Amino acid sequence: MNLTPHFTLAELTASNKARSLGIDNTPAPELLPRLVRTAEMLERIRATLGVPVLVTSGYRCPALNRAVGGVATSDHTQGHAADFVAPRFGPPAQIAKSLAPLVDLLGIGQLIYEHFGGKAWVHVSTHTPEKPANRVITLTSSGASLGIQP
Ligand SMILES: [Zn+2]
Questions:
Q1: Per-residue DSSP letter, 101
Q2: Centre of ligand 1 from the C-alpha of residue 8, in Å
Q3: Distance (Å) from CA 80 to ligand 1 centroid
Q4: Ligand 1 center to residue 31 CA distance, Å?
Q5: What distance in Å separates the CA atoms of residue 110 and residue 36, rounded to the nearest whole number?
Q6: How far is the CA of 74 from the centre of ligand 1 (A)?
Q7: Residue 105, Cβ neighbours under 10 Å: how many?
Q8: How far is the CA of 16 from the centre of ligand 1 (A)?
């Protein structure tokens, strides 16, 4: 099922972890409009970067979110968020730096550059955090910092 021209529901719910643990990561029907909004945000990002965007984690049901160690309030469990890479554009730090000045234009509520132990990706959410300062942040094993900090 296509959510938008370039993003399918299958892409936004796929999870090796869910498969390996036998977790059914099918979202409740009422979450579908949110997933469409998330896919629409990804379309704008894709058009801006000019290359394919590969979603590494989209919707996570609560059981999957726990299994991957996500915080309980994660926007992933609400259908608002997606993690992605875009190797043809460049490394995630470069993607995050390019998108940071465009969050309003692209309808990105929150942009997080995440890098943990050699793995890095970009997290985007349609949901805007309560504290405006948290809108563009970097998350690593040593914690959160404001802005994009490679
Ligand atoms: Zn994420």
A1: G
A2: 18
A3: 10
A4: 17
A5: 17
A6: 8
A7: 10
A8: 15
Query: How far, in Å, is the centroid of ligand 1 from the Cα of 123?
Result: 4
C-alpha 52 to ligand 1 mean position (Å): 18
Q: Residue 22 to residues 10, 32, 57: CA-CA distances in angstroms?
A: 16, 22, 17
Q: Which two tokens stand for residue 36?
A: 């469409």
Residue with tokens 């997080």: 112
- pLDDT tens digits for range 71-127: 889 999 999 999 999 999 999 999 999 999 999 999 999 999 999 988 999 999 999
Distance between CA atoms of residues 38 and 135, nearest Å: 16
In the chain, % of residues over pLDDT 90: 95
Tell me the longest C-alpha to C-alpha distance in the chain. 40
pTM score: 0.96
Q: At what angle do helices 32-49 and 92-99 cross, to 10 degrees?
A: 100
Distance CA 48, CA 4 (A): 16
Task: Measure the CA angle with vertex 48, ends 46 and 50; round to 5°.
Answer: 65
Domains in the chain, ordered, with CATH?
A: 2-146 (3.30.1380.10)
